[in-house]
Amino acid sequence: MKKYFIYILFLLSSLTALAQVGDSRRDFSVGVSGGYLLNKVGFMHPAIKQDFKTAPQYGVALRYVCEKYFKTICALQVEFNYQDLGWKELIEDGTNDQYTRHMNYITMPVLMQMGWGKEIKGLKFLFEAGPQFGYMLNDKEEKQIESFLTEYERPSYAAHIHADKGGIHNRFDYGITAGLGVEYSSPFGHFLLGARYYYGLSDFFDTSKKGDFGRACHNTISFHLTYLFDLVHTKK
User: Fold this and answer.
1) H/E element holding 56?
2) Coil vs helix vs strand at 14
């Protein structure tokens, strides 16, 4: 897993190096963000069948545009988002049983952002990637178990989760996120629309030899709309 972080650090260091040879910028913007996410948990040994768990997300964003290198506008964007992660179990035993686990996180993606297009007015295409960190605030179960099968007899072996054996082992989350988007810049600010994929590298359940799972990490697809307004803008 360390090689992924080394790769991200290399990208961020490359962005800093480019700033030394490109057309310098010192633009700083802040704003708000909202969107929708689809989450699954990468369970292994045993695996758990799941539907996408959907939920809204919202937060704040800060962006620093450092330079324009040829046609590439380079920036660093940091966000603080509230996300309802977790999973929704796919139960295929012909019953009306349901199980959803809500896990509420504060997440902080640190994104290298590269843009191509109009800098002042008009559209710009965006690519962004970087590490993401998170901390779980709380979690809760939402379940409806009406079948004659007990949780321990069900094919998905989800009894380990339902019984919450040992509880949440790790509240701190980290991984890698990347995405694509478009930005429309106007005299009233910047409007960003995009999609990202997050791959978690940490496990929230105990995955040691004494634990119940081999892996238990978040995998998230998110769609977001962000509005930024300039506090400092150097390009006229």
Assistant:
1) strand 53-69
2) helix
**CA–CA gap between residue 36 and residue 205 (Å, rounded):** 25
Q: Which amino acid is at 108?
A: M
pLDDT along the chain (236 residues), means of 10: 54 54 82 97 86 96 90 94 93 78 96 92 96 94 68 52 64 97 95 97 87 88 97 78
Distance separating alpha carbons of residues 69 and 180, to the nearest angstrom: 19
Q: Can you tell me the distance from the alpha carbon of 167 to that of 161, in angstroms, rounded to the nearest whole number? A: 9
- For residue 24, what are its two tokens? 């310098």
CA distance 158 to 119: 51
Strand 50-51 relative to strand 53-69: parallel, antiparallel, unpaired?
Answer: unpaired
> pTM of the full predicted structure?
0.84
